[in-house]
């Protein structure tokens, strides 16, 4: 049995979960999320807990069991606390500025790169070299942060670029460090 899939999900106070034909809708203080899950799995919502069961040990159902439980848990966590990713900008002249609902990034290109807040994603710029991406959908927050990072990924020689907070960039030695034979 899946160690993750068999654990029940406890639903905190203020969060409402509905199950209509495996269409799970989670409503909480931060917003509402809904997602359709496989009809082959059993999802029961009762007494403030959610449990996911599978009818047999088919390989496909085993792989869906833990995934379904984790996705529902992420939905509950998202509507109660929300998710956020912090990006750091490293490099001379590289910076971010927020005006209204737009974030303008100067990343050494001939033009500024502009990102806009969406309904699900909010952007904050507490410092010129820091961007905080936040929202209630874990997958959407991660995807949006990855799209920002993609504009100027960190390079291994000087470490310039956009990186996740706490991300370690493996540095390379340049041509001068090679040594003569």
UniProtKB/TrEMBL annotation:
Residues 151-181 are annotated as: Disordered. GO terms for molecular function: rRNA binding; structural constituent of ribosome. InterPro entries: Ribosomal_uL6-like (IPR000702), Ribosomal_uL6-like_a/b-dom_sf (IPR036789), Ribosomal_uL6_a/b-dom (IPR020040), Ribosomal_uL6_bac-type (IPR019906), Ribosomal_uL6_CS (IPR002358). It comes from the Bacteria. GO terms for biological process: cytoplasmic translation. Residues 11-82, 91-164 form the Large ribosomal subunit protein uL6 alpha-beta domain. It holds the Pfam family Ribosomal_L6. GO terms for cellular component: cytosolic large ribosomal subunit. Keywords: Ribonucleoprotein, Ribosomal protein, RNA-binding, rRNA-binding. Transmembrane segments: none annotated. Part of the 50S ribosomal subunit. This protein binds to the 23S rRNA, and is important in its secondary structure. It is located near the subunit interface in the base of the L7/L12 stalk, and near the tRNA binding site of the peptidyltransferase center. Belongs to the universal ribosomal protein uL6 family. This is Large ribosomal subunit protein uL6. It comes from Ruminococcus flavefaciens. The lineage of its organism: Bacteria, Bacillati, Bacillota, Clostridia, Eubacteriales.
């Amino acid at each position: 049995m899946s160690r993750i899939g068999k654990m029940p999900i406890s639903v905190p106070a203020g969060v409402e979960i509905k199950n209509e034909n495996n269409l799970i809708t989670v409503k909480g203080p931060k917003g509402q999320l809904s997602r359709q899950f496989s009809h082959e799995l059993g999802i029961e919502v009762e007494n403030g807990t959610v449990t996911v069961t599978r009818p047999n040990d088919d390989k496909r159902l085993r792989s869906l069991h833990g995934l379904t439980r984790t996705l529902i848990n992420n939905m509950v966590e998202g509507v109660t606390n929300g998710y956020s990713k912090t990006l750091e900008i490293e490099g001379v002249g590289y910076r971010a500025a927020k005006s209204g609902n737009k974030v303008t990034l100067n990343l050494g290109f001939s033009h500024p790169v502009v990102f806009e807040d969406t309904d699900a994603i909010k952007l904050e710029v507490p410092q010129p070299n820091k961007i905080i991406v936040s929202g209630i959908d874990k997958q959407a927050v991660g995807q949006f942060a990855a799209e920002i990072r993609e504009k100027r990924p960190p390079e291994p020689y000087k470490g310039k670029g956009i990186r996740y907070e706490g991300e370690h960039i493996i540095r390379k030695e340049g041509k001068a460090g090679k040594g003569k034979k």
